[in-house]
Amino acid sequence: MQKKYENKILLVDDDTKNLQVAMNILKDYNVIYAQSGDKALDLLEKNKFDLILLDVVMPVMDGYYVCSKIKQNEKTKKIPVIFLTVKDDEKDIVRGFELGAVDYITKPFYSEVLLKRVEVHLKLASVMNELQVVNTNLNVLVKEQVSQIRQKDEIIVRQSKISAMASIIDVISLQWKHPLDKIKLYLQSLDLKLANIDEFKSDDIFKRTLVEVNKLDEIMIDFHKFFNNQKNKEDVNLQVSLDNAIFSLKDELNSLNIILNIKGNNLLSLNIVFDEIKHIFNKLIAKSIENFKSSEFLDKKQIDVSFEEKNDTIYIIYSDNANNYDKNLMEKYLLTTNSFNYSNFDLGFYLVKVFVEKNFGLLSVKKTEDGIKYIIRFDK
């Protein structure tokens, strides 16, 4: 039968008459009774109770001993215990409190007294449980905020170091770019001239050299992006910057039949250098394309991008279902300061992290069941 209250109470008394009286008074609660301490402890192991009414005087195992066992058990020690006793001796009462009881009620029972004591301690226990949950949540929140503050402090230190050498390296990258362009032109000319000479027809050394020079050229372009401090921030619509990034990769997306879904608030704007946010989207999509090319047995290739705003924080959530990501490698690319040590390091992709942090954002990478998810957070 459905009770008025959902609370579950354990009533422990060896006297049948006392049990009947107490259960009649507490008829609106879910009451389970035990007529011995041993049975009570067994019920506590198998059930979850909100309150325990415990008789002091019982054969074999008295209430004091049962209470001490309850309070020694991690599973039951927080359940409030009210002693039921015919004694009103001060020493007995004090002993009960010392063992962890929250209250005592003398027999014979008075209906209103028993009901009111039970009601008060059930409410008190509920409030204490709620406080504990709030406290736990606050501790987690504080740890998260402290972690984010530390990350942002590290970002500030790194940005100050980058700013100190930015103009010098920016000049160097531009100086290298000029001879690189000439080398590319010379190689292309040589490749054309030698294409009709039988001795060189099957030799693709110039083509392979040109590929490597193009890679070096791309690195120089990324270096210039990295260290160029001349461009000013502006309010950039995220949807527009994403569309710009997609445009340059549209042919590859179409050739691989990759579906790109864009969700969320398409009016969100971010104060950032346009080329930086475009680079972030461009490299994430390019990395997805790279992994889709080497993925096998995918019936549906999909990229999802969503824009959300919560409590003055903008979230960009990017995911794909390319199922061949190496999580450890992704973390090495993006989450360590020693990324440059890896032979297959991709500076352009690493700049995703740099540009996020340059704008005091946070980037996290999660390996999902189907692929990977990037969560980028910018606080306004």
From TrEMBL:
Obligatory cofactor(s): Mg(2+)
PROSITE patterns xref list: RESPONSE_REGULATORY
InterPro entries the UniProt entry points to: Bact_response_regulator, CheY-like_superfamily, HATPase_C_sf, Sig_transdc_resp-reg_receiver
GO biological process terms on file: archaeal or bacterial-type flagellum-dependent cell motility; chemotaxis; phosphorelay signal transduction system
SUPFAM superfamilies: ATPase domain of HSP90 chaperone/DNA topoisomerase II/histidine kinase, CheY-like
Keywords: Chemotaxis, Flagellar rotation, Kinase, Phosphoprotein, Transferase
Origin superkingdom: Bacteria
Domain Response regulatory, residue spans: 8-122
Residues with 4-aspartylphosphate modification: D55
Alphabetized GO MF terms: kinase activity
Pfam families per UniProt: Response_reg (PF00072)
Protein name: Two-component system sensor histidine kinase/response regulator fusion protein
